Amino acid sequence: MSDMVTLIDFPPLGDDRGSLVSLEVNKTVPFDIKRVYYIFATKAGVARGFHAHKVLKQVAVCVTGSCRMLLDNGRDKEEVLLDSPTKGVLIEDLVWREMHDFTPDCVLLVLASERYDEADYIRNYDDFLRLVGT
Ligand code: T46
Asked: What is the residue range of 90's domain?
């Protein structure tokens, strides 16, 4: 796995009732969380993402089901299978991302370092490559 991908293990706090994961700023999540959103009920065969962010950093975790995330920094491409509620991926700024192969039950939870700002999106791949200098 390249330097581009940082996987984060969330320790399950289990007991005989089941499991619990706590996501805590500067403990399990390396930035202040300004926004949380989740993607669910993604239709069969649909892929999402296809953009990068100028500033935004995020941590993504499939709390149920799974999806495949392609990360691309303009030089290297890496695929991550998000298939566990105890495994997250840190998505840094200036990384192109695509999400594929959502299972019908997939709930992709995303913790974001910034509020929603459409101006932070780079939605054209050639613009992205120009910006990262490749
Ligand atoms: C990302 C990947 C992992 C909002 O109004 N507020 C929000 O916080 C978000 C995330 C989206 N929106 C609106 C913008 C669009 O009209 O919801 C609509 C769908 O968003 P988008 O097409 O950007 O969704 P994805 O799944 O392609 O990308 C999302 C995030 O936008 C993005 O930051 O990294 O998930």
From this structure: 6-13+26-132
Q: Tell whether ligand 1 has an atom less than 6 A from the beta carbon of residue 70.
A: no
Q: Is 116 in the pocket of ligand 1 (CB under 6 A)?
A: yes
83-122 confidence digits (pLDDT tens): 999 999 999 999 999 999 999 999 999 999 999 999 999 9
Average pLDDT over residues 5-11: 95
pLDDT tens track for 37-77: 999 999 999 999 999 999 999 999 999 999 999 999 999 99
Q: Which atom of ligand 1 is nearest to the CA of 112?
A: 33
Q: What is the CATH number of the domain that holds 101?
A: 2.60.120.10
The Cα–Cα gap between 61 and 86 comes to: 8
The total number of structural domains that make up the chain? 1
Q: Whose CA is nearest to atom 20 of ligand 1?
A: 49
CA of residue 20 to ligand 1 center, whole Å: 27
